[in-house]
Structure formats: C-alpha cells, structure tokens
Design a protein that fits this description.
Elements: E1 6-7, E2 10-15, E3 21-28, E4 35-42, H1 48-54, H2 58-66, E5 72-79, H3 92-96, E6 112-119, H4 122-130, H5 144-153, H6 155-158, E7 164-171, H7 213-222, E8 225-231, H8 236-245, E9 250-253, H9 261-273, E10 276-281, E11 287-295, E12 298-303, E13 306-308, E14 316-325, E15 333-339, E16 346-352, E17 373-376, E18 379-382, E19 386-387, E20 393-394, E21 420-423, E22 426-429, E23 433-434, E24 440-441, E25 447-448, E26 451-452, E27 457-460, E28 463-466, E29 470-471, E30 477-478, E31 496-499, E32 502-505, E33 509-510, E34 516-517, H10 523-535, H11 545-548, E35 552-557, E36 568-572, E37 575-583, E38 589-594, H12 602-646, E39 649-658, E40 665-675
Parallel strand pairs: 2-16, 4-5, 4-7, 7-8, 8-9, 35-38
Antiparallel strand pairs: 1-3, 3-14, 5-6, 10-13, 10-15, 11-12, 11-14, 15-16, 17-18, 19-20, 21-22, 23-24, 25-26, 27-28, 29-30, 31-32, 33-34, 36-37, 37-38, 39-40
Helix pairs in contact: 5-7
C-alpha cells in the first residue's frame, strides 16, 4: 500500500573538505498518488452567490479528483475577519446579524471556523456545507492569512494524512498581513500555533496579529501543503505576486459565482503535480550544494534547487546533487532533501574525513580490484601497471594520468555529460544515453503530444529524424494536404496555403478551409460598378466604363425574367439595379441585367388625389351648411310661438325649497300660468 517515488531515501556521506561529492536522486511519478484537499472559503457578504454553488460542489469535486486518484479526502473551513473594529462592526446588533439589510439573516462574524475534518464521505461534506450561511464585515481585505495558518498548523484537527496536501483558498478580495492588527489594538505577533476551540473556532484571533507572508510561506512549506488560490479577476494580480513568494503554489481565475472552481482545482493540481521541485532544508553550515536536473526535455546545470516541469505519470527524472564540505565537522550532521508537495524525503547523514586512518594497511587488498594494489589510509595504492581509484585500469591502455579528463568533451562540461560514469578513461553511459562522452540522450528530443518526436520519428543525439511525410523539430508537421482540401479538391479554398496539414489563410480570410472573409467584397459588390455604367451610364466608372469593364458583357432581360440563381439587388444613382453574374472559362463575365420596370406618370395620380380631396372637402362643407340651415329654421319657429304666448297676461311664480338648517337650495322652479 505504500507508494515510493523517491530513491534513495537514506544516504550516509563521508566527505573530505574541499572535495565535491556527487550523488543521484531519482524521482518517478506514481499513478494515483493519494490526495487530501481542504476547501477554505471566504464567507464575507460579497461571496453570497458563490456559497450557493459550493453547497452543490461535493460530489462533482470528489468525482473530478477520483479521475486522478482513488484515495481522496475533502474537508471544509471558512473565514471572514477579526471581530473588532475597524474590521467588523462591533455593535451588539451587528455582531448578532451583520447583514447590510435587516430583513436578511447572516451568521455572526468570525475569523476562522473549521467545519469538517477531511473525509471521503460526500454526503457529510454536502450536509455540513449546506448548513453554512453568509456573514459580513466592514473593510475590504479579509482575514484569510489567519485561516491558512490555522489550517496548516492544526494537523490533527484538520486530519491531514502523509500524502499530497492541497489547500484551496477561495476569495473575491485581498488579505490582511502582519502589522494590520495594530489598527484594532492587536500587537502580539502570530505564534504559528493551533488555537482552535471545541467548536472549531480560532479563539485567539483578537489577541494575535495576522501572520506575515514569510511566516505563512515557511509554515506551508514545513507542513508540505500546496495552496491553490482561486480568486476573482479584480484580485488576480495581488495573488499572483503572493504565489511567487510561496513555494509550490498556484493561482486560478474564479468566476463571479465560483461555477468554474472544479475545473480550476483540476488544472491547478495537474500543473502542481507535474512539476517536481527538489529542495534541501536544515543544511548545516559550511556546506555548498548544487543541483543538475536531468529532465525528459533537457538538462539544467548548477541550480540552487532541482526542477523538472511537465513530468508525466510513470516518467522518471534524475537530479545529480553535488555536495562540498568547506570545513571539518566535529560531529555528524544531517539534513533532508524533499520534492515539494510530496511526503517522501531523502535523509542524508554527513561526516567529514579530516584525518588519515593509516593503520588499516592491507597488502594486495581484494578491495583494490582483486589484489592489484595495497589499501592504505582509505585509498588504493596501485601496482605500477594499474591505475584508477580501485586500480581497475590497465596503465598501458591509458594515455592520460587524469582519467576524468578523457571523459569530458571540454573543460566546462561534466564527466560523461552527467549521463554516465568514467571507467578507465572511457564513459559508460546510462540506458538512454550514448556517444563517446554520453552526449547523446535519446529521450531529450522535442516532444509533441507527450511523445518524443511526436511519435513520427526517432531521436538521434537530441535531434529528431522524422519519418517520411513529416518534418519539424518534433516531427509534428505533416507534409500531407488531406486536411487542407475542400470537397472539390481546392487547397484552402484558394485563399491560403497548407502548412503542416493545416490551412494558413491569406490576410482577411479565416475558417478551417479559409472559406470566411469578413473584409472581402461579395460578387454583387465586385460587379456592381460595371453593371451600373453598362446599363445606366452612371456610377464611379461612367467615364472609363469601356476600359475598366472590357471583359464584361451585359444581357438585358425583362423584369419578369427569372432563373435559379440568386439575383443582386443594388441601389444606384440610376435607380434599382437587379442583375446576376456568370464567369466564363476565358475570363469573360456575363451580367444578366433586368430592365427597370416602366415608369408610371405620376401627374394623373397626383391630380386625381388632389381632386378627390377637394371634392370630399366641398361635400363636407355642403353637409355642414345644410345642417346649420335646418337648425336656424327650427329656432325661428320656436321664437315665434314664444312671442305669441307672451302677448297675454301671465302669472309668474318663483318658489325655492330650502332646508332650514343647511340653507341649501334643493329645488328651483318657475311656473308661468296664463291669466285669462
């Protein structure tokens, strides 16, 4: 059940001061390496919409990680900020419900809350997360550093295993750092210890300041935790700068509602796990160390740390580590070399040889190539006919006294190019290397699609020899034109060239077959000017029509003429132009132009319309005068009757009915009674 990727894992070195010693460290990336992922979420009010998506995250996240490894556990924690001014409103009502709107319900603010220990139970993860509610604080920066520090140092509470540890940090704002706590009267520096109570709350948040970037980076490195910062666009740059200061960390752009967080985590994990960083720590004083990285894509010399990128599963990389003692040690010392992000490490114990043990003389010692030399003071003193550290070489066959010099291409290169060992002045190369100085590595050629020379050639001394039909540094360029031809057999539609079996379109063209052209003129636009000048004698070419349109012939047809082709309809100075074009093999263009419809004389229509309007107006006037005349006559008759009535004596009575209290006139009547 134990996965071993690093070899060796223990080493004992005896060094003489000033004499460098080189040893190899191999790393072979295993498939399905276990993963622990702790999801640390900002629950400030601006992350309200994100929380709803995270509540549904558990199963999808576990499925995505199980595509990488069968052994995966996930946990959950959240953070806001310190619960004192100026970070959080300290009014009692706001501490109980910090939401901006009183009608909304938010949980009380807190610095960091450990919600769920690492588990492989998806149902429990979703249940715990679904119980979370949003909170709020005052200022924009959040207390994420406090949360990361507690997640890194509270190993038992979080449940970290000795596997790949990922800390996913999601937020939409920046972070407080050491010194910001003084604004709230918090001056004690962060002590880097676990301070979680039984409820999982960070209980020293209002006592200890935020950690510094250096302190947090050191703690994450010591705990072997790889942070993944999933942040929104507005805060992407600060976190990218922060990532440069934290070893083995990654940054991804989070959508405003965290809908892409699973893809972001998957991409970041693949990037981190395929990059192998070999670093030493606790190196004793008085030692120099350097790394030569022998990666699948090349060699890097004299680094302060070993690094290989793009390492694939089951691919092995080698780091040659050179250690030099500059002084004598009084006692044995030890240090470790570890690939960042992995639990394995190489334990190295070092002692210095500052004295000669000359009492161990052995004549014709078996140690010295079966008795070809005497063993004295820790070294072989060879016979006159032998050479080499173990007297393994025949002197008569060696020209140079310094055997290693014959195993170097030049004074600046490594012995056997770092890919083999020098035996009796000749290089014995590793499996993948060959050449007199092991200078050729058949695995160091360029790759395409993860394969050396793209699988379309063979590697010869770092240079790809491509199979027939392929070219390019990585044999990634196919010379075939099968994918460049249209169904009619035209390469790239005649609007581009075929390179590596892909169309490279001319300027202005796009598409798989260069069939799209946004800036190009349509056939209607191309032949419009010739059609206009030939038919109407107008347009841009009216003065040079014969010369400019010498290869163009026109054919006039009735406006009722129809054909199966699409007609061009263009508005010109001479009127509406309708035509269709036909290109002949000799280059001649036949334009079939519809005659414009016969012009209708508008004068009769105009006269008719005006006459109609005048006639209707006159009729309306006549009707009006008739109605007025009838009314006048009726009024005259009524007045005559009234005059006849008023010639007799009349008794006129007026009476008014009034409410006594309200003094309101209820009725008014006038009665005229004739008196006989």
């Amino acid at each position: 059940q134990k996965i071993v990727q690093l070899a060796p894992q223990k080493l004992h070195l005896k060094l003489r001061p000033g004499v460098p010693e080189t040893f190899s460290v191999n790393f072979r990336r295993a498939e399905g390496y276990p993963v622990d992922l702790y999801y640390l979420m900002d629950l400030s009010y601006s992350m309200k919409d994100d929380l709803e998506n995270i509540k549904k995250l558990g199963n999808d996240l576990l499925v995505a990680l199980k595509n990488v490894t069968k052994s995966v556990k996930i946990g959950f924690g959240s953070f806001v900020d310190k619960t004192v001014l100026p970070y959080t409103n300290s009014l009692k009502s706001k501490l109980e419900n910090p939401c901006p709107e009183r009608t909304e319900k938010c949980q009380s603010p807190f610095s960091f809350k450990h919600v769920l220990q690492l588990t492989d139970n998806v149902t429990e993860f979703e249940l715990k997360v679904s119980q979370q509610s949003i909170s709020a604080n005052l200022d924009s920066p959040e207390g994420g550093f406090d949360a990361m520090m507690q997640a890194a140092v509270c190993m038992e509470e979080i449940g970290w295993r000795n596997v790949t540890r990922l800390l996913v940090f999601t937020s939409d704002d920046t972070f407080h750092i050491a010194g910001d706590g003084r604004l709230g009267g918090i001056y004690l520096p962060n002590d880097g210890r676990c301070h979680l109570n039984k409820e999982g709350l960070y209980e020293k948040s209002n006592v200890l300041d935020y950690p510094s970037v250096g302190h947090l980076a050191h703690t994450l490195f010591a705990s072997n935790i790889q942070p993944i910062f999933a942040v929104t666009t507005n805060t992407l740059q600060p976190y990218q700068e922060l990532s440069k200061l934290i070893p083995k960390s990654a940054v991804g752009e989070l959508k405003h509602d965290s809908s892409n967080v699973i893809q972001l985590i998957t991409d970041a994990y693949n990037n981190l796990s395929s990059t192998i960083n070999l670093q030493h720590f606790k190196l004793p004083q008085g030692f120099d160390i350097s790394y030569h990285s022998l990666c699948g894509n090349g060699i890097t010399l004299n680094q302060k740390q070993g690094q290989c990128s793009g390492v694939k599963i089951k691919e092995q990389v080698t780091f040659n580590v050179t250690l030099t003692a500059k002084q004598c040690l009084e006692t044995k010392q030890s240090f470790q070399i570890r690939p960042l992000g992995f639990s394995e490490e190489l334990q190295i114990e070092v002692e210095t040889l500052c004295d000669c043990e000359c009492h161990d003389f052995t004549e014709n010692a078996d140690y010295c190539s079966n008795g070809t030399g005497n063993f004295s003071c820790g070294i072989c003193r060879c016979d006159a006919t032998r050479l080499g550290r173990l007297c393994e070489c025949d002197r008569s066959q060696i020209k140079e006294k310094n055997l290693d010099s014959t195993c170097r291409m030049d004074n600046n290169s490594l012995v056997c190019s770092g890919r083999g060992k020098c035996v009796c002045g000749k290089c014995e190369c590793s499996i993948k290397a060959h050449g007199n100085f092991c200078q050729c590595d058949d695995s160091s050629c360029p790759r395409d699609g993860g394969e050396v020379c793209g699988g379309n050639g063979k590697c010869d001394c770092g240079i790809c020899e491509c199979n027939e039909g392929y070219s390019g540094d990585a044999c990634d360029c196919s010379l075939s034109e099968d994918f460049c031809k249209t169904p009619e057999g035209v390469v790239c539609g005649g609007n581009g060239t075929c390179e590596c079996n892909k169309c490279k379109c001319n300027v202005g063209y796009s598409g798989k077959m260069c069939e799209l052209c946004i800036t190009c003129k349509t056939p209607c636009e191309n032949y419009r000017d010739c059609a206009e000048c030939k038919s109407f004698g107008t347009g841009k070419l009216k003065h040079t029509c014969e010369e400019s349109c010498s290869m163009t012939q026109i054919k006039m047809v009735k406006s009722s003429y129809s054909s199966g082709k699409d007609w061009c309809h263009v508005q010109t100075d001479g009127g509406l132009l309708t035509f269709v074009h036909e290109e002949k093999e000799d280059g001649t263009v036949i334009l079939t132009i519809k005659e414009p419809p016969e012009q209708v004389n508008p004068i009769p229509i105009i006269i008719g319309v005006i006459s109609g309007i005048v006639l209707i107006g006159m009729m309306l006037i006549i009707v009006y005068r008739v109605m007025v005349e009838v009314y006048d006559r009726e009024s005259s008759t009524a007045l005559k009757k009234k005059d006849r009535m008023s010639s007799g004596k009349m008794l006129i009575i007026h009476y008014i009915k009034v409410q006594p209290q309200q003094s309101l006139i209820q009725n008014f009547r006038m009665i005229m009674i004739p008196i006989t």
